[in-house]
Amino acid sequence: MGFDTSGLLPLSDALQGMLEQLACCCDSEQLPLPEALGRVLASDIASPLAVPPFDNSAMDGYAVRLADLASGTPLIMVGKAFAGQPYQDEWPAGHCVRIMTGAPVPEGTDAVVMQEETLADGDRITFLAQPEPGQNIRRAGSDIGKGACVLPAGTRLTPREMPLLASLGVATVAVRRPLKVAIFSTGDELKPVGTPLAHGDIYDSNRYGVRAMLARLGCDCLDLGIIPDDPAQLCAAFIRADAEADVLITTGGVSVGEADFTKQLLDELGEIGFWKLAIKPGKPFAFGRLPHTWFFGLPGNPVSAMVTFDQLVQPALAKLAGQRFERPLQLQAIAAEPLKKSPGRLDFQRGILSQGPNGLEVRSTGSQDSAVFSSLSRANCYIVLERERGRVAAGETVTVEPFGGLLL
Ligand code: AMP
Ligand code: MG
Questions:
Q1: What is the band of 36 on the pLDDT scale with cuts at 50, 70, 90?
Q2: Which residues line ligand 1 at a C-beta cut-off of 6 Å?
């Protein structure tokens, strides 16, 4: 291998170590349903209703009683039932009720026969097939029983949950307040976009990535800008974040060359651990706490910052925000070309997953250098290569993780 990786910390250990220390820190509030989009439910939602609330027709057709059909003679249509307009009159023997989808079935209905299985001659309806009992009737409570838990606490409300809650008549929900996250970038070389670059300067790109990911996660972001590599200014930024935010996320300043600086400061203000993670990209990572605020120090390299945020910080923020978190699914795909890899670290290479003639296949986006941002912007998945794995030949099966909502 040529280099010692024995001191590297596996990703799963790092994640577990952090999650063990963290707990939800966001209070709850009651919000009208439309304003709760993107928020995290503070308590289980039990259904106040049965859904559907009454037995209703799944088809346009005729409500029948099986006894009336026994003789095989046509039935006379006695009236009509529409969605929102039930049939409530007498239903004499030898008759059927015209019924539309979603209409409550009249009392005594055994089945609904779809229109296509009947012949109508004025009000005389001939039934071409014998229906099964219960056919085409959606029973009250068959979707959701009254009192059943429809959404557990910790669910983040997406467009998929909104109509579900509305269908139950839920007008307001108890949700957690958003997590407040302070961010800053460190580095004397960094300039904000919209300003000219002097020789040796680069634009601060990480802050825009981190801000965008925080927005996707529904966090409130306090952007403290770029802080130069100057102890007094860094110290002031740490103190401000500690006073105003639940979490502080910085990028840069955690690599071997710079860690001492940050460490000295944070050892005075709080506690900090510097980790060398057994992942690539993203080796240096810092985790710690100020008196009131959790601290995540991401590496400065732009791709490393994004990947460590996605893999490590995202689940940690979810826990702090009271949100249940599941990683996107991992799939198996065929490597359509060889992939460079040396054993020692878990690789999150950036790939393009597509449907090939023989199933899913994946290609690399090119240079996997952690400073090459185009490798991430052109990708739609990670190619997750196991720690001890070496070079991958074309045709080998690899694990891929399509990007989840954070990066889309
Ligand atoms: P550092 O972790 O501070 O040693 O930075 C590692 C590399 O990432 C250096 O090449 C930095 O110039 C670069 N870098 C650090 N922070 C940023 C940033 N906010 N935006 C773009 N590049 C950065
Ligand atoms: Mg730096």
A1: very high
A2: 185, 187, 189-190, 202, 204-207, 251-255, 258, 299-302
